[in-house]
């Protein structure tokens, strides 16, 4: 904890706080620390229990994802209210867990929109890597009905799933683009030069173009 405190940078904290995070650690230096520590499941558990954001990010980097039980991951996700901790937990731990599919189904139906957003993130992963047995038309129905009025984190996750369906599945592409155009979610989101807009019709069109150019 003392070493993490020594990595604190006020400028990084100011940027983090704009995104709803509460840490001031350069993530490159945090990753270097994790690389030095290597995998340490017990230490990861103790770091998580501190409730400190930088410590929890480090815990995610040094833990053993398959060592967590389903209930344990569910509790951790509900504790991870900071966006960066939530995203890293889903991407670096839950996606590698044998419980990921079970949690995807449970979280997608959860009344807490932040928890539900994790379910949608796992669904987006399935669309990209293992779409078999997914009801893609049904997912588009839900997105069409609910995305526009969903809370911010959930809306972002549903929009990502919409774009992924359009990018990966040619048979659903026209409908995905149409839903994006009608709902106009993230249409005016400011995008840095050289970056792709998160507005689904632009995102889908650009990624499909890149695939064809390869």
Give your account of this protein's structure.
- There is one protein chain.
- The chain is mostly helical.
- Helix content is 69%, strand content 0%.
- The chain is built from 13 helices and no strands.
- The longest helix has 17 residues, at 113-129.
- It is globular and about 55 Å long.
- 36% of the residues are buried.
- The mean pLDDT is 95.
Estimated structural class: mainly alpha
Counted beta strands: 0
Q: DSSP strand (E) fraction?
A: under 5%
Main sheet: strands, sense, barrel: none
Topology at a glance:
Blueprint: H1 2-6, H2 10-18, H3 27-37, H4 41-49, H5 53-62, H6 70-79, H7 83-93, H8 100-108, H9 113-129, H10 136-146, H11 152-168, H12 170-183, H13 200-213
Helix pairs in contact: 3-5, 4-5, 5-7, 8-9, 9-11, 10-11, 10-12, 11-12, 11-13, 12-13
Question: Which labels suit this protein?
Answer:
mainly alpha; single chain
In short:
This protein has 214 residues and is an all-alpha fold. The protein has helices at residues 2-6, 10-18, 27-37, 41-49, 53-62, 70-79, 83-93, 100-108, 113-129, 136-146, 152-168, 170-183, 200-213. Helix 4 (41-49) runs antiparallel to helix 5 and helix 10 packs antiparallel against helix 11.
């Amino acid at each position: 904890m003392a070493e993490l405190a020594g990595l604190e940078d006020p400028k990084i904290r100011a940027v983090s706080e704009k995104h709803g995070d509460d840490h001031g650690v350069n993530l490159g230096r945090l990753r270097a620390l994790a690389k030095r520590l290597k995998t340490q499941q017990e230490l990861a558990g103790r770091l998580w229990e501190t409730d400190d954001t930088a410590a929890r990010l480090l815990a995610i980097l040094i833990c053993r994802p398959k060592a967590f039980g389903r209930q344990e991951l569910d509790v951790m996700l509900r504790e991870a209210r900071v966006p960066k901790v939530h995203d890293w937990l889903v991407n670096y731990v839950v996606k590698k867990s044998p419980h990921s599919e079970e949690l995807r189904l449970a979280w997608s139906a959860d009344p807490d929109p932040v928890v539900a957003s994790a379910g949608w993130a796992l669904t987006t992963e399935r669309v990209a890597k293992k779409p078999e047995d997914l009801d893609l038309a049904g997912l588009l129905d839900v997105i069409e009905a609910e995305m526009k009025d969903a809370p911010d984190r959930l809306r972002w996750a549903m929009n990502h799933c919409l774009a992924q369906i359009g990018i990966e599945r040619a048979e659903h592409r026209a409908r995905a683009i149409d839903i994006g155009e009608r709902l106009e979610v993230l249409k005016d989101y400011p995008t840095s030069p050289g970056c792709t807009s998160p507005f689904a019709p632009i995102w889908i069109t650009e990624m499909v173009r890149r695939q064809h150019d390869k």
